[in-house]
Amino acid sequence: MSRTKVAIIGSGNIGTDLMIKVLRTAQHLEMGAMVGIDPSSDGLARAARMKVPTVHDGVEGLIRLPNFDEIEIVFDATSAKSHEYNASRLAPFGKRLIDLTPAAIGPYVIPAVNLDQHLDAPNVNMVTCGGQATIPVVAAISRVVPVPYAEIVASIASKSAGSGTRANIDEFTETTSAAITQVGGAQRGKAIIILNPAEPPLIMRDTVFALVDALEAAPDVASEIRRSIEKMVADVAVYVPGYRLKQQVQVTEIPEDQPVRTLLDADGRRPTHQVSVFLEVEGAAHYLPAYAGNLDIMTSAALQVAERLQEVNA
User: Fold this and answer.
1) Which residues form the active site (predicted)?
2) Catalytic site residues?
3) Which H, E and C letters describe the chain, residue by residue?
């Protein structure tokens, strides 16, 4: 099978880790260009040492590359604001864009959940690190029982949060919350991110709380939820090997006197049970430390999308 040439815009931590994944682990992709705006960045220096064509003047330099026509897929690992500009400049050239920022110009894609639904989209959005880690679990629950409300908390090592991540905190919460409903299937969603300053840095941890309804009518539903979540975790681990359950899935009854009136389901029923899921994401340490699972899950998911696009279009 022929290889598809790709370019990566953004020579920071995420872009550099993605480049190394393409070079070391991709089966159907090859690097066509590494694009940055800082000629002295470590990402561009590493790319040059690995014989990858480099550009230090952003998307404009990418467009001027002699081999630009050969590049079919462009990953954007910059920022939400920058992606808006990059997407507008690349739109006339028919490139497939995989957006690793929270810009959300294209449809949200979680590979284990809905990738095949968006194989024709010119620009797909990888949501956020917290979204990639937790939305598969929300989707697994909603496949078994309605989810009136789901809340996720992503805790990442402060050292793994670069300038792009810190600049996109608001976009993180907004994009992830929207994807919890649009992809995860919850009626309402909320996302929280925590930058943990602990030393030594801790591996990414994610928590999912989902309120569900009518378990009392079907005693075996709790077991079905657990099986659905366990299968989904295994599906994600295919492309993110460090993704795992931290402890057994908990399904607990909500006390009748606990106030949840604002979280009624679409039919006005009060949720009866809470599903609590605790996850851990360890990075592959291709470029970033193993504790930076938040960045690794983004690059691994983006690579999975590109590989699938190549298979379909080969």
Assistant:
1) 129 (acyl-thioester intermediate)
2) 129
3) CCCEEEEEECCCHHHHHHHHHHHHCCCCEEEEEEECCCCCCHHHHHHHHCCCCEECCHHHHHHHCCCHHHEEEEEECCCHHHHHHHHHHHHHHCCEEEECCCCCCCCECCHHHHHHHHCCCCEEECCCHHHHHHHHHHHHHHCCCCCCEEEEEEEEEHHHCCHHHHHCHHHHHHHHHHHHHHCCCCCCEEEEEEEECCCCCCCEEEEEEEEECCHHHCCCHHHHHHHHHHHHHHHHHCCCCCEEECCCCEEEECCCCCCCHHHCCCCCCCCCEEEEEEEEECCCCCCCCCCCHHHHHHHHHHHHHHHHHHHHHC
Residue 11, annotated as binding a ligand: yes
Digit-by-digit pLDDT tens for the chain (314 residues) are: 689 999 999 999 999 999 999 999 999 999 999 999 999 999 999 999 999 999 999 999 999 999 999 999 999 999 989 999 999 999 999 999 999 998 999 999 999 999 999 999 999 999 999 999 999 999 999 999 999 999 999 999 999 987 778 888 888 999 999 999 999 999 999 999 999 999 999 999 999 999 998 665 566 888 999 999 999 999 999 999 999 999 999 999 888 777 775 677 667 778 889 999 999 999 999 999 999 999 999 999 999 999 999 988 87
- Asked if residue 125 belongs to a known ligand binding site, the reply is no
- Structural domains for the chain: 4-126+296-313 (3.40.50.720), 129-290 (3.30.360.10)
